[in-house]
Design brief:
Tetrahydropterin Synthase, Chain A; 3-stranded antiparallel β-sheet; about 20% strand; elongated
Length: about 300
């Protein structure tokens, strides 16, 4: 009977001692607090410490991306004067914004800071993000906020949010921020939607005009290149022709110099030969008439040119 009682007492004691054994899985970091003081940060593997009540082991996935939602909730029934996530733009208009913050726990000492303050991590992120959202929206007109806010806030908000929470020592790193919902209040949403459609059409027409201008510019450049190539080819052709004529002229001059040594009157003969060709071409075209047949013993009889008048 005493052995059975001893066994019954020993089993709970062993089970209590086993609470000091913890398995840290890959991708996790553990923080061991003994009587509230951090005593170890074991890596993945088996950890053996003191049992529950003396040691507390918090295992934190460091490769896990957490998400916190900030701002307006379109599914909530909030009839307050200015519900959460409603901000005032630079031109005194209201917009509703909901953002999603993706964050992860850091490594090393950041895990200890996260374990110590994990209950206030998301509230602190929400307050910091809301103040930054209000700051950015207050700097822009409502049309710009509705038109570009989802893209602009994505790159603007994340680094500034990380800077804003650094003094809090939360042990987390902001990975990205995305805008889930961005719209005007329901009372004026149809009017703003119509404005957005009109502005989108304007931007579409502007883009079409820029593309058409770019096309015309490229066509003008192509035409310019063609004209330059044609002009260059024409200039080269004229240059070659002029060079050929100059070479021919120089060749004839050289021939003339050689012939003049043997015949001093060669230039006169050449001149009459060329004039004969010219006059023959003119006569063939009816532009001149040879007067040799009108030359008599007393010279050229010009009276023979007078034509009788028709009666």
């Amino acid at each position: 009977m005493s052995k059975r009682l001893l066994l019954l007492l020993l089993i709970p004691f062993v089970a209590y001692l086993l609470t000091g054994i913890a398995q840290v899985r890959p991708g996790e970091r553990a923080v061991v607090r003994r009587f509230g003081r951090v005593v170890a940060q074991p890596a993945p593997g088996l950890w053996v410490g003191l049992p529950w009540g003396m040691d507390r082991v918090d295992r934190v996935p460091v490769n896990f991306i957490r998400r916190a939602y900030v701002g307006y909730n379109p599914e909530a029934d909030d009839n307050s004067f200015m519900p959460a996530g409603q901000y005032l733009s630079g031109d005194q208009n209201l917009v509703n914004v909901q953002a999603a913050i993706d964050y992860s726990v850091g490594d090393g000492d950041a895990v200890v800071r996260y374990v110590a303050q994990q209950d206030r991590v998301e509230p602190a992120l929400a307050r910091a993000a809301e103040s930054l959202l209000a700051e950015w929206i207050a700097r822009h007109a409502v049309d710009e906020v509705l038109l570009t806010g989802k893209i602009a806030l994505r790159s603007w908000l994340a680094p500034r949010l990380q800077e804003r929470i650094e003094p809090y020592g939360l042990g987390v790193k902001v990975q990205s921020v995305s805008v889930i919902y961005l719209a005007a209040p329901d009372e004026v949403k149809p009017a703003f939607d119509q404005v957005m459609i009109t502005q989108a059409n304007i931007h579409t027409q502007e883009n079409d005009a820029r593309q058409e201008a770019f096309r015309l510019q490229r066509k003008a450049q192509a035409d310019e290149n063609d004209l330059l190539q044609q002009a260059d080819a024409y200039a080269q052709g004229r240059q070659r022709l002029a060079q050929a004529e100059a070479d021919a002229f120089l060749t004839r001059c050289e021939q003339y110099r050689r012939l003049k040594k043997d015949n001093p009157d060669i230039l006169t003969a050449i001149w009459w030969a060329e004039m004969g060709k010219t006059l023959a071409n003119l006569k063939a075209n009816g532009q001149v008439d040879i007067l040799d047949e009108h030359i008599g013993a007393d010279g050229l009889d010009i009276t023979q040119f007078a034509r009788p008048k028709k009666k």
